[in-house]
Amino acid sequence: MSDRPLLLVSNDDGVDAPGVIALRKALATFADVYTVAPQTEQSAKSHSITLHHPLRFHEVEEHVWAVDGTPADCVYVAFFLKDLLPRRPDMVVSGINHGPNLGNDVHYSGTVAAAREGALRGVRSIALSSSSSDMEGAAQYAKRFCKQLLQTTAPAGQAILLNVNFPSVPPKGVRATRLGFRLYSDDVEVRDDPRGRHYLWIGGPGGATSEPVEGADTEALDEGFISVTPLSIEATQPDHLGVAAYVAGTKGAP
């Protein structure tokens, strides 16, 4: 058995996307890399899991599999399909996504969801996204980040989950950040198909602006830095426990 770390790689752009190819080549210089990724693009699928129809998969090449499901499906399959991996992975690495995943994007992102699925399984995980087309350059930074993440020790019972974004320009450096907030031109258009039937097109014209938040990932990218943001899989909001108690009827009105 190899004494090199075992890294599970996935993404949401599809198994043949340039970002994931560059990533696995860079990581293979120091680790045993197994890729289980969507057969086709699955952007903005968030953490959806396929429960109501069967999944098909095939081996693309040695240690690379394509699954016709979501990013979370892919990581789930890698963990629980017998003998797909030689052992439990030391890390889940998702990306490199073509486009950023900043601020509230993390709730929609399939890239982040693949990493989150690893963290839910107790494995340190990292999601990588880039505003630049220089995937080889981003992959070299990713290699460094993954090596350093392997050296960390997580608090008991908590898996580390990091969200990394690369700017559109050559990076000035790296910053540890918090999540910012992105504003989109949200809209729903009603259109007609050639047979006169209505259909909906959601999402607006594209593009986003950011609210100014000091120390945020959005601020870092705007200033040309790589952002490294720790995420939590603990969804409880402790500041609202009093509201929950009042709604439940177990506490008097505030």
Tell me about this structure.
- It is a single chain.
- With 254 residues, this protein is α/β, with parallel strands linked by helices.
- It has one domain (6-181, 211-248): Survival protein SurE-like phosphatase/nucleotidase (Stationary-phase Survival Protein Sure Homolog, Chain: A).
- The chain has helices spanning 18-27, 71-80, 110-120, 135-150, 217-222, 241-248, and strands at residues 6-10, 32-38, 57-61, 64-67, 91-98, 125-130, 161-166, 174-176, 182-184, 188-192, 198-202, 208-210, 226-231.
- The strands form 3 sheets. A 9-stranded mixed sheet has the order 3-4-2-1-5-6-7-13-8.
- Helix 2 packs parallel to helix 3 (110-120).
